[in-house]
């Protein structure tokens, strides 16, 4: 029997900060939206317990069209001390906030996987794992970092089938807890917040940790009380950080896409690139070995162990033997990681260095298919790598989707 095809004005794939924010703004416009995903899955399944957000509380709210849905509002109604200033945000609190946000603004999220997404004329056809098919003129892909975890080629020999929590090498994306590494020798690869905090959590869980980083570890500045004339200058409020050089990226994200492609890609990589939050310094430095200026040039399995050959800046080499390698090596947008996307549709999405080329409304080269979050950073800048970018994206996308629905209905 052929599948019954239903219809929906818009489908949102993903129920993290960006997906929920877009869905909330669509609902605010009176548009019926079907949202699919496990609410905050990228945070409660793929980030280790005990971590803190890199962004401060004032820059960690999802976006809704009305008032009363910020992190501060959640703390107030939940009887939790309001986080202020430079207070760090525990991941457990942020997950509960996201779930509360969904209950308030997108209460009908469907925890169902998407089996297939394909194009049919002016519409997209979404097939669910249940077999239901939905025809829609607009699809918003807000899957966060899912499918984009990057593993360096030098680690491929010890992970022929890809990284695995139970294998010789895993990626930070694959862990909701690091407690299971107690007593084991673990090499953490990377120099960013994920690497540094994962190493600290492993050490505090009783693992024997060594951190390997290609570059010197950089640290954010601890908050300081203004002195001298600086006391009379109003404090700078920017969601990306208290420095003027970051203001353009947070206040003019719409203009970012007009920069040359090479410039955009370089800025996305370099602005707020790998560094550790100031509050993490004492949990890393002096706690376990940190090998900077070293990169993994080869890896091999020796019995139950892993041997990494490290190369230094002067060409010197050394071997590091551990039980497990944790790759905190970041994410690279590659649409091949979206396993639900039909090959024909994927080929129609024009890309720049793996990232979809987007219009000013986040629409791809496939009409009616929109990308937000990390996949949109190459077009709109580093703001899209953080929760605080969800408002800009949600407003743009919801407005564009409303226009597309009207246009398709007229046609």
Overall CATH class of the largest domain: Alpha Beta
Q: Quickly count the domains.
A: 2
Q: Please work out how many helical segments DSSP would assign.
A: 12
CATH homologous superfamily name of the largest domain?
FAD/NAD(P)-binding domain
Structural class: alpha/beta
Overall geometric form? globular
Q: What portion of the residues fall into strands of 2 or more residues?
A: 15-25%
Biggest sheet, in brief? 5 strands, parallel
Number of strands: 18
Order of the strands making up the biggest sheet: 8-15-9-10-11
Spans where pLDDT lies below 50 across 5 or more residues: none
Radius of gyration: 22 Å
Q: What are the secondary-structure elements, in order, as H or E?
A: EEHEHHHEEEEEEHEHHHHEEEEEHEEEHH
Average pLDDT figure: 93
- Classify the helix fraction into a percent range: 25-40%
Q: What would you say this structure looks like, in words?
A:
The mean pLDDT is 93. The strands form five sheets. The chain has a five-stranded parallel beta sheet with strand order 8-15-9-10-11, covered by helices on one side. A four-stranded mixed beta sheet has the order 1-6-5-4. Strands 3-2-7-18 form a four-stranded parallel beta sheet, with helices on one face. With 411 residues, it is an alpha/beta fold. It has twelve helices and 18 strands. The chain has two domains: 5-147 and 331-410, FAD/NAD(P)-binding domain, CATH 3.50.50; 153-219 and 275-327, FAD/NAD(P)-binding domain (3-Layer(bba) Sandwich). The chain is globular and about 65 Å long. α1 runs parallel beside α4 and α1 (17-28) crosses α12 (390-410). The longest helix has 21 residues, at 390-410.
């Amino acid at each position: 029997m052929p599948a019954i095809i239903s219809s929906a004005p818009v489908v949102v794939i993903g129920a993290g900060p960006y997906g929920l924010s877009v869905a909330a703004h669509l609902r605010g416009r009176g548009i019926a939206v079907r949202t699919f995903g496990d609410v905050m899955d990228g945070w409660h399944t793929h980030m280790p317990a005990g971590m803190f957000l890199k962004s401060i509380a004032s820059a960690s709210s999802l976006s809704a069209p009305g008032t009363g849905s910020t992190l501060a509002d959640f703390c107030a109604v939940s009887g939790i001390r309001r986080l202020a200033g430079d207070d760090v945000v525990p991941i457990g609190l942020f997950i509960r906030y996201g779930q509360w946000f969904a209950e308030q603004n997108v209460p009908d999220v469907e925890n169902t996987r998407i089996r297939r997404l394909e194009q049919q004329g002016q519409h997209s056809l979404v097939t669910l794992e249940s077999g239901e098919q939905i025809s829609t003129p607009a699809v918003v892909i807000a899957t966060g970092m899912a499918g984009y975890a990057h593993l360096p080629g030098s680690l491929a020999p010890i992970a022929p089938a890809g990284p695995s929590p139970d294998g010789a090498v895993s990626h930070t994306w694959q862990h909701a807890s690091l407690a299971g590494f107690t007593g084991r020798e673990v090499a953490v690869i990377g120099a960013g917040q994920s690497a540094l905090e994962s190493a600290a959590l492993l050490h505090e869980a009783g693992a024997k940790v060594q951190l390997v980083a290609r570059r010197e570890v950089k640290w954010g500045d601890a908050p300081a009380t203004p002195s001298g004339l600086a006391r009379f200058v109003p404090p700078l409020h920017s969601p990306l950080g208290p420095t003027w050089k970051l203001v353009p990226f947070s206040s003019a994200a719409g203009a970012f896409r007009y920069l040359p492609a090479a410039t955009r890609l370089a800025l996305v990589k370099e602005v707020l690139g790998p560094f550790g939050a100031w509050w993490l310094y004492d949990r890393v430095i002096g706690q376990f070995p940190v090998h900077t200026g070293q990169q993994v040039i080869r890896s091999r399995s020796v019995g139950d162990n892993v041997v990494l050959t490290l190369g230094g800046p002067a060409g010197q080499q050394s071997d590091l033997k551990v039980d497990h390698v944790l790759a905190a090596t970041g994410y690279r947008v590659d649409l091949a990681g979206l396993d639900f996307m039909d090959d024909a549709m994927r080929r129609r999405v024009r890309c720049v260095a793996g990232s979809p080329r987007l219009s000013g409304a986040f629409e791809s080269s496939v009409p009616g298919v929109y990308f937000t979050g990390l996949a949109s950073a190459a077009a709109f800048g580093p703001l899209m790598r953080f929760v605080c970018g969800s408002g800009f994206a949600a407003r743009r996308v919801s407005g564009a989707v409303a226009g597309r629905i009207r246009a398709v209905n007229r046609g």
